[in-house]
Here is the input.
Amino acid sequence: MSALAEIGLMLGGLALLLAGGRSLVEGAVGIAARAGVSPLLIGLTVVAWGTSAPELSLNSIAASEGRTGLVFGNLVGATICNIGLILGVASLLRSLPIRSLIIARELPVMLGFMVLLPLLAAIGPNEGGGVLPGAFARWEGFVLLAAFVGYSVILIRAGLHEQRAEKALADQSKEAREAASSRRLWVSVVFILIGAGMLGFGGNLAADAAVAIATRLGVSNMLIGVTIVAIGTTLPELATTIMAVTRGHTDLAVGNIVGSCVFNLGCIYGVAAIIQPHRLPSEALIPLGTMLLLGLTVTLTSLVINRRLQEVRLSRAEGLVLLSIYAAFIGYQAWRTLA
Here is the structure.
């Protein structure tokens, strides 16, 4: 296949992602409005899991084929992309409110999974030397997956009992939510199914084309995963977040980002490790360090501010900080490739 055809496939995938993102947001908001469930809960579950479908599909296949460097690069890179690029871009489009519920529970959980990943790697089977001498055994994959399932059960049960705490969301995009509540439930479900399908197909199409282009340049699997594939597979989150923010559903957008990070590190990496136990790549330290830096930046800043305020906002200035960290990470990876 020619380079021009690969570029065309990537653009086609992007178009599907934009359309799928809009469909998924419309369906999710419709279900939230009909069921009286907060957009935050929908964003943390239905939307986050739906937009992470490309990562689940791609990494399960990659793990079964033994391409574990691609798995690590994609999932850690996607988490970096979610926080640094997508959250940064979203905050530039609109100042994002980070409610106390997210600060008190969801952000620390996300950071906990970021810490758990390298911790399990460090205590894993010793396969000799390196900064991270351990490897991911199958039981460690079960630990990640069990932690994710347990968190999800607690999240859903708590969300269904927090209608009064979520009452403040009633004023958020009131007209859009009233319009969505008049839509039949099955129509919203169809919107979600169509959107998830378009996101999955479009994400894989764009990512595969991007990998083919990068392979032409002689780039390693790990670097492809942490940059090109990570960006490609997080395009659903980017498309969905942009659609949600521009339509005023900021809690849905933040929930989507946080939920996607937890899903990537807990569920998908757990499944990949169960399918194929593996050793982390030798160059894993910088991606892990960048991921932790971004997680700490968002979580600790929000926790400190929240001591005085019930609601804080991720401003454009803070969004620029996240984007700067992400740009520095990508720049370093590009320098390593060219050096």
Remarks:
- DSSP finds 13 helices and four strands in the chain.
- Residues 3-35 form the longest helix (33 residues).
- The chain has one domain: 39-168+222-338.
- The longest strand covers residues 96-99.
